[in-house]
Every structure is written in structure tokens, then in C-alpha cells.
Specification:
Layout lengths: L3 E10 L2 E11 L4 E6 L5 H8 L7 E6 L8 E4 L4 H4 L5 H6 L14 H13 L15 H15 L3 E5 L7 H16 L3 E5 L3 H7 L2 E5 L4 E4 H6 L1 H9 L4
Parallel strand pairs: 3-7, 3-8, 5-6, 6-7
Antiparallel strand pairs: 1-2, 1-4, 8-9
Helix pairs in contact: 4-5
């Protein structure tokens, strides 16, 4: 059963429609890349996936036991966020807040989960370090560890390699691919069409023409061929 099913969605904000006729689904184990031109509605869709915006029309359903609170989110970083004055351990542990319920303190299992994800992201040695002292790539690993504390099912990544150098970018993509192969479903918003057609299992293209399909179907489609040629991907 699909985690997320969208059928003829109409999305927008302040009464203004941004997208209409949007249909797609996300199944367990998928690696979905959401691509498209600037202003095509990627951010609006992201907010809908996070439960921050309600659809203006159409049908949007959660399935297979997934709740919107079980989506781990790695946001696109701002300059202010990069300068956040907290320790790595504190930031990673904060990802457990959604599972705390009415408990006022983190539990032993919360701390064990944070430790596990810091080890997984290879940042355990920085646990006591101030977040703002880390490199951009290290900071992204911290935020990814935090997102993993919120979910074992679905990660939503918003431009996860923005501002990173090519070597760090490649390492981040390899890490995300590893997480996907371990069973975590990936939904990634990206301007990087080259990475999308390399790593994704499915692609959702937003813009003047909406297209959803497998990576292979997208590459063979007219919209895919046109966008790839404009972006230098073919």
C-alpha cells in the first residue's frame, strides 16, 4: 500500500492556485525526486507533504500506517540556521521531540537513537562541538541525523546539497542512496536533474507540464527530454 497518494490535487496559498491536476504516489522504498523550473510549485508541494498547507482541491491520503508526523525533514539551510549556537548532540536529539508525547524529558531510548544516528552519519566525534563551527557538509549530516530521529520510514529532503562543493555533494548523494537501500523512502526536492536521473526510482516534474513516472519513463518522455537538454543532462 502506498505511503502517499495524491489524485488531481489543487495546491496554492492565500486563495491563489499554484498547481492543479497533480497526481502521484509514493510507495515504501521509493526514491522520488521532485524537479521543475523555479516557481513551479515545489515549495508549495513540500509544505503540503509536511502538513503545513491543506490542498485546495483533489484528494490527498496517507497510507500503510504512515502519519504526517513520521516524515523526517531536512530543510534547505539559511545563513541564520548555519550559525545556530547549539551542540551537535542537542540538535540531533531534538529530532526525537515528535515521539515524546507528554513526556517533559528525553528518554534513554531517545538518547540511544540519537547516538545511533550520529554514528550512522559519522558525526559522533562532533557531539560536543558547536554546530556553527562545522563545515557545510558536516552540518548537513547533523541535520540528516536529526531527521532520522523523527522517522524510520520517510525522509523529505529540500535541496540537500545546496551550497556544497562537488566532493561533499557526491558524498551526500551516496549517503542518501545508502539510506534508501536500507529501506527508508526518500522524497527529494532538487534542481539537480543529473542526480535525479542517476539516483531516483521515480520523478515528479512540475511546471507548465506535470509529469510523474519511473525514472526510465521520464527520460523517455518529451517533457523529460526537453528539461534534460535544457539542463545539460543529455
Amino acid at each position: 500500500m502506498a505511503y502517499i497518494t495524491a489524485n488531481e490535487l489543487v495546491l496554492g496559498y492565500d486563495g491563489k492556485e499554484i498547481l492543479e491536476g497533480l497526481s502521484f504516489e509514493v510507495n515504501p522504498g521509493d526514491y522520488l525526486c521532485i524537479v521543475g523550473e523555479n516557481g513551479s510549485g515545489k515549495s508549495t508541494l513540500m509544505k503540503t507533504l509536511l502538513g503545513l498547507n491543506n490542498p485546495m482541491g483533489g484528494k490527498f491520503e496517507w497510507g500503510d500506517g504512515l502519519k504526517k508526523t513520521q516524515i523526517g525533514y531536512l530543510p534547505q539551510q539559511t545563513i541564520v540556521q548555519r550559525d545556530f549556537p547549539a551542540s551537535v548532540g542537542e540538535i540531533v536529539l531534538s529530532g526525537c521531540q515528535g515521539r515524546m508525547g507528554l513526556r517533559p524529558f528525553y528518554s534513554k531510548s531517545d538518547r540511544a537513537l540519537a547516538d545511533k544516528n550520529m554514528e550512522l552519519m559519522e558525526i559522533k566525534e562532533f557531539e560536543k562541538n558547536c554546530y556553527r563551527e562545522l563545515s557545510g557538509g558536516q552540518q548537513q549530516r547533523v541535520l540528516l541525523a536529526r531527521a532520522l530521529c523523527a522517522t524510520e520510514k520517510v525522509l523529505l529532503l529540500d535541496e540537500p546539497v545546496s551550497g556544497l562543493d562537488p566532493k561533499v555533494t557526491a558524498g551526500m548523494y551516496d549517503l542518501i542512496e545508502k539510506l534508501n537501500k536500507s529501506g527508508i523512502t526518500i522524497i527529494m526536492i532538487s534542481h539537480d536533474i543529473i542526480a535525479a536521473v542517476k539516483y531516483a526510482t521515480h520523478i515528479l516534474h512540475l511546471g507548465g507540464e506535470i509529469y510523474f513516472g519511473t525514472k526510465e519513463e521520464y527520460i523517455a518522455s518529451s517533457v523529460g527530454k526537453r528539461f534534460l537538454s535544457l539542463e545539460g543532462g543529455m
